[in-house]
Write a structure and sequence with these properties.
This protein is mainly alpha-helical. It has a single domain (about 5-200), classed as Tetracycline Repressor, domain 2 (Orthogonal Bundle), CATH 1.10.357. About 70% of the residues lie in helices and about 5% in strands. It has a two-stranded antiparallel sheet.
Length: about 200
């Protein structure tokens, strides 16, 4: 979602950038979860009133899904940008993990990953959230798989394990980093874990 949304407030239009709104409410959802985040808190973080938020994104669940997709799509784009660089696959994989760790441990509180930390909690009872999260996980693994497939073609990696299997391992490593970050594991410890996983994935 790009551009600006203009909503009516008693005859006076108000505009805001959807990307900025989704980034702001993402912080509230990550810190408090879907259930714990109130509409007043979300509107305050977004810098718009509740009617404007509803008009632009729908109800709270719809706002959460918009935010989740925005978060996930930026993550996938970041992964693809790193793998699009030149250099050994091990170094590029390490850069992906390093970027994830920086995001997961960003102040003021450990964030972890929005999918792992919040969507998984709601998935059993909210199928729309479950479907959106599953789709983003698949997109993430596909980004890894494409990178590993190119590395096989270039002779950097052997065909076995398959690119798909390596992608699942890389995705699982990201999930583990997110969980540990959410529990307060330091960035240094997370980096040590990531470093130990790189040779396992790219052997």
């Amino acid at each position: 979602m790009t551009g600006k949304v203009i909503t009516k407030q008693r005859g006076r239009p108000r505009s805001f950038a959807p990307d900025q709104v989704l980034q702001r409410v993402r912080d509230v959802f990550i810190q408090k979860g879907f259930a714990g985040a109130s509409l007043d808190e979300l509107a305050e973080a977004a810098g718009v009133n509740r009617p404007s938020l509803y008009a632009a994104f729908g109800d709270k669940e719809a706002l959460y899904i918009h935010t989740l997709r925005h978060y996930g799509q930026h993550g996938v784009a970041g992964i693809e940008a790193i793998f699009g660089k030149k250099g050994p696959i091990e170094r590029r994989l390490g850069e992906v993990f390093k970027g994830a760790i920086a995001l997961y441990t960003a102040p003021p509180v450990p964030r972890g990953c929005m999918i792992v930390g919040t969507a998984t909690v709601e998935a059993p009872t909210r199928p729309r959230i479950a479907a959106a999260a599953a789709e983003l996980l698949q997109q993430t693994e596909k980004a890894f798989e494409r990178a590993f497939a190119r590395a096989v073609e270039d002779g950097e990696l052997t065909p076995s394990p398959t690119p798909a299997a390596r992608a699942r391992m890389a995705g699982a490593a990201l999930d583990t980093l997110a969980i540990r970050a959410r529990l307060g594991t330091t960035a240094t410890e997370l980096q040590a874990f990531a470093d130990s996983m790189i040779p396992v994935i790219s052997r």
